[in-house]
Amino acid sequence: MENTAIRFACNSCGVCCKGRLIPLTLNESRQWLQRGHDVAVILEAFDESLWPADSEKFKHNAKRASQIHSGNAKINVIAIFAANALTQCPNLDDQNQCGIYEERPLVCRIYPAEISPFITLDPADKVCPPEVWEAGEIIVSDREANPSLQVKIAQSRDEDRLDAHAKVAICESMDMTVAA
Ligand code: SF4
Ligand code: SF4
Prior knowledge:
- Helices cover about 25% and strands about 25% of the residues.
- With about 180 residues, it is an alpha+beta fold.
- A hairpin with a 2-residue loop joins strand 4 and strand 5.
- The protein is globular, with a radius of gyration of 18 Å.
């Protein structure tokens, strides 16, 4: 069998803390706002025209969604709350160090591993420099994250499911009714 073990040793370059939106749990979103930072909201919608209802993708995403009735149509809406780090994360200091390291969001603890079960980690898709993939602990082996990452990924998926209805309800209360 092909050896698919992927090693990783973060060099703290801070590149992954720039130029992106960082998905947050509902609780992390509250903390982010309390620190005085911005949270962006992205609404995604899907129904059975995108994936068959018995497909793994539909079932996985339906658990992350809140079902909305629009006339006779039933639409699944996923509300993603994300920290604004489009220029750079407001917690990144001058030395490219995380200023809230002990309290950083779950996705920051999981990166560069993948949270979606439908995406396989490929170092070429990540912003990390090439040398960090040449040493360090094995984070993925034969497409399976190592045990400590698996715990964090499972927690992230659980939080997504637990927060799904509340996040959509918050969007409705703010009259956000358009999803892509
Ligand atoms: S919270 Fe910390 S680890 Fe996460 S993006 Fe911001 S600076 Fe980087
Ligand atoms: S880009 Fe990669 S190597 Fe650089 S800080 Fe982020 S996770 Fe670590």
